[in-house]
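Run LacI family DNA-binding transcriptional regulator through structure prediction, thanks.
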Amino acid sequence: MATIRDVAKLAGVSTTTVSHVLNKTRFVSAEGKAKVEDAVMQLNYVPNTVARSLKGGSSRVLGMLVTDSNNPFYADLIQWVDQVAYRHGYNLILCNTQGNIERAKDYMSMLSQRRVDGMLMMSSDARQLPVSSYGTMPMVMMDSGPDRAGYDRILDDSEQGGYMATKYLLQAGHRCIGLLAGPLEKSNSQNRIAGYRRAMAEAYVEVDESWIQSGEFTYEGGVTAMTELLKQQKKVTSIFASNDLMAMGAIRVAGEHGLIVPKDLSVIGYDDIPGAKYFNPPLTTMRQPLELMAEQAIAMLLARMETPESEGQRTLLTPTLITRDSVAVNLA
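Sure, done. The structure for LacI family DNA-binding transcriptional regulator is below.
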């Protein structure tokens, strides 16, 4: 494996000059830079980022923890984060905790040992670890996290999103509105429930508690919650599902019970995953601004890396209503 000394020897320059070219830390003449770059290509030289970070420099690597990279929402967001990080000259190490606290703990330790420059966290599993587990690594929480110095948060405004989704159904003439909530221990689930309740209260519609059923943020979670909802005595004419996967699972169950969407049952989802517009019927949903979320998360993390002791910042991003074909006006 080639070393920096091999590059310097082939280019006919000092190792210091090679270092300045690679790290862009000082001006090097165009001729000297070209020699170094040619030598790097000929030798297929790869800088040792860990060794560089041990000397107090930057590894140019960011870590990202997510709960489930197979979820289309996370997969889409990861692509945006990777693009933005790359544009800023950083590589991304992705860690999928898969709902396992021990995996989250191991990944936190690994990222610290790899001396990544900072970390983006979108993992409820990692947030269950003691704050002391995070160490001093610059970090941005991309859904929720502790309010303290050194931990910035960029959040979907789930309460407002739940309010907007429910209000849209109310404006379409629906009064019996079911809510398929995510896991009740998760803050975004509780926030969407709060938005649902606010819209219903504002319209002077009493909520039947049996209309609120919860499940995982998955197809199966939607099936489970919808199955329970259909068992209730007081029937609904529309449903707000807390994510698109749940909405799709619910529509399948509705079809098995002879209900046609949106003729018999209107459905609105949340996230606007790539498959939402291709579903049958195309799904009305709340779109999270993933590109903006990625841009602002990376910007916050880079700022945190520059000023690690500053107060934690909190940014809320408002979702957008995307109307398609899964909601109909209720004429009853």
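The CA atoms of residues 50 and 56 lie 10 Å apart.
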